[in-house]
Amino acid sequence: MPGHRLMLDCLAAPDAATLPLHCVTPEGLEALRARLPAGAAGFLDASGFAAKAQEVRLLPGGGGITGAVLGLGEGPATPWSFGGLANALPAGSAWHLAEEALVEEAVLGWCLGAYRYARFKAASRAPARLRAPPGTERSQHAAEAAWRVRDLINAPANLMGPAELAQATQNLATVYGARCTIIAGAALQEGFPALAAVGQASPRAPRVAVLEWGVPDAPLVALCGKGVCFDSGGLDLKPASSMLRMKKDMGGAAIVLGIAEMVMRAGLPVRLLVLVGAVENAVAGNAFRPMDVLRTRAGLTVEVGNTDAEGRLVLADLLTYAAEQDPALLIDCATLTGAARAALGPDLPALFTPDEALAAALLGAGERTADPLWRLPLHGGYDSWLDSTIADLNNVSSRPMAGAIIGGLFLRRFIPPTTPWAHLDVYAWNDSARPGRPEGGEAQAMRAVAGAVETLFAGIPGPGR
């Protein structure tokens, strides 16, 4: 990816001098001791190494370090098993995997754990580096995409407004020879009226970035991302504590860009339509108000029950535009509701879809890629909770329950019944640092969706990219 690739500075050059890293479960510890030199095996015994998850020992010898051992613990190894190594091993040291198993998980986890957002503050230390074995290119590509998603989410809102988010879409399109159109001004008011209303109070004008890629006769995969670059809540103003992470409210848009990168880089046999709704929900004299009635692209009218439920208004117009193109698959990603986090916590994006085959593909891909999702119901019994006396529907429920489901039901009003569609309500953030998951922005559901796209459209001739 000339001109766009982030340097994964946690990877060593193929010809670099490296030390061996042994990865072992408690069950395999005795066999590892038998393979190691007697001094190293004795050191492991004397130090009490038990191969617990994330347990690391440096092996001494010859006046220095001769290798290291990582404990994998009892459960199945995942990328997170290796996520702490770039920081746990000596700064700037270089390593290779002594065993051939789990190389893809090791490379992905190592790289994800090495990420840091260093735009304004230099990293305190250089990461340890891994020599990635041949055949792990997909893991490296996934890590690079995740780094870029994290960078977009971590950028402060004063430097990541609607224009900058649209430009990030343009930059991605340029790298892959895709087409990118930016819709703003009068065209936005006419074609995306609800989205335009959300962003009209900000001095940073709203816009929609449209990325298109692939050959004309391939099945169309449409991705829609909520790109609210900062969410004050509008006139239904959030309390200060709730605004502290609202730079991440464009996380859905960042994630669909990451999915698009993975799809294009893998040359999957699909056409892509990526829609990024880039807006800022601000407060000013011309802000949209509670009880306003907005027109949507679909022709439905929406009464504004709460200006802090703006993301679904942004997505309503994007989903309508995408559905007009008759996609074979339509997926939206959004930091839509706090209710999803209350139900599932920060690590499990909520999956909503009426399509059983699509649900199975997404859930299965989430398991395979260590990027899990959890399905919640689109319970039709709550549809009437969106009723309005003066418009086709309200943007919030009349009852203070089932908020994540209500968000999904609102979006479903803009989806044709025959369109395969899934809605992902993501958190897009790590509240605290864990192995492989530094505090800050996170590319949740990115690998799961890209994996599902690959599975669903396997066997179709590729675009020759």
TrEMBL record:
Q: Which UniProt keywords apply?
A: Aminopeptidase, Hydrolase, Manganese, Protease
Hydrolase as a keyword of this entry, yes or no, is: yes
- PROSITE patterns tied to this protein: CYTOSOL_AP (PS00631)
Molecular function GO labels: aminopeptidase activity
Q: Looking at the Swiss-Prot or TrEMBL record, what is one Pfam family this protein matches? A: Peptidase_M17
Q: Does the keyword Hydrolase apply?
A: yes
Record's InterPro entries? Leucine_aapep/pepB, Macro_dom-like, Peptidase_M17_C, Peptidase_M17_N_1
- Superkingdom of the source species: Bacteria
The record places domain Cytosol aminopeptidase at 306-313
Q: Which family does it belong to?
A: Belongs to the peptidase M17 family.
Record protein name field: Leucyl aminopeptidase family protein
| Organism of origin | Paracraurococcus lichenis
